[in-house]
Amino acid sequence: MDIRNWRTKSKQLRSEVYALCLASKHPKTPWYAKAFAVFMMGYALSPIDLIPDFIPVIGYLDDLIIVPAGIALLVKMIPKEVLEECREKAHPQSISKKPRSWTAAVIIVMIWLSAIYITLRLLW
């Protein structure tokens, strides 16, 4: 497979994910699609998986099946006109301004700190 083809697909995926991020913040997006988008972003970015990655082959299958299936379901949940508008805004030229969610980062750090605290507390 050609490396340029991989780069093109990578840029398309980044653009699509950014469009979904924009659509999840759009006022015309239904609340259940917004909630599912937060859940999928949290699952994709979380170090905690349904099946741990250290289990050979099966550990990575949940990432290869659940995340793309969730993205496909999310695309179906968002109204077409909202998704098209967000796709136009998410062209590769506009991706240089990456969205940052400090709230999500703080929540993930708090979960990790809580897990470390509980583990240390149980050990002593």
Descriptive overview:
This protein is mainly α and 124 residues long. It has one domain. Helix content is 72%, strand content 0%. The chain has helices spanning 3-24, 31-45, 58-77, 80-89, 102-123. Helix 1 packs across helix 4. 11% of the residues are buried.
Helical fraction: over 70%
Task: Indicate how many domains the architecture comprises.
Answer: 1
Please count the helical segments. Answer: 5
Which structural class best describes the helix and strand composition? mainly alpha
Low-pLDDT segments, ≥5 res: none
Number of strands: 0
**H/E topology pattern:** HHHHH
Mean pLDDT over all positions:
82
Describe the sheet with the most strands: none
Radius of gyration: 17 Å
Distance linking N and C termini: 54 Å
Shape: globular
Strand fraction equals under 5%
